[in-house]
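anyone seen this seq b4? input:
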Amino acid sequence: MKLHIASVAKISKLGLLILITLIIFQGEYAFAQTSQTKASDKPFVVEYYYKARWGNADEFIRLFKKNHYPVLKKEMELGRILRVEAVKPRYHNTEDGRWDYRVTIVWKNVETAHDEFNPETITKQLYPDQETFKREEQRRFEILLAHWDLPITSVNLDEK
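predicted toks r here
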């Protein structure tokens, strides 16, 4: 009889251990889901920097406005992008730190910024002459010396 009671006690301890493990994992899963939901509800901001070859910055922004900005505006209409704005430096900088334009895009959320959306249907609708569109887009990138994307997050300076 002692052997039987000992076996039941071992099984009960094992069952209790399994139950505790399941409760812990369920809590971690729920926390992960909550964190993921919060991240998908927040806008995702990316700054896109463009450094054109000397003397080509005006041509770059002209082509950007003509061929790329209308596509971004269509994505705004679809609700994928919340805001697009561009700035350029007022003064010159050193060559290694120089950039000509910074375009800030506020995406609906991080998932939207990285999903598999293909803007080709938009470009075909906006630019029926695809040959000219592709040639001008190729030129826009040929005149770039550098291009980099920088996802950013706000810092609350009042928070202690």
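Residues 29-35 have pLDDT under 50 and may be disordered. The two ends are 64 Å apart (CA to CA). kinda curious what u guys think
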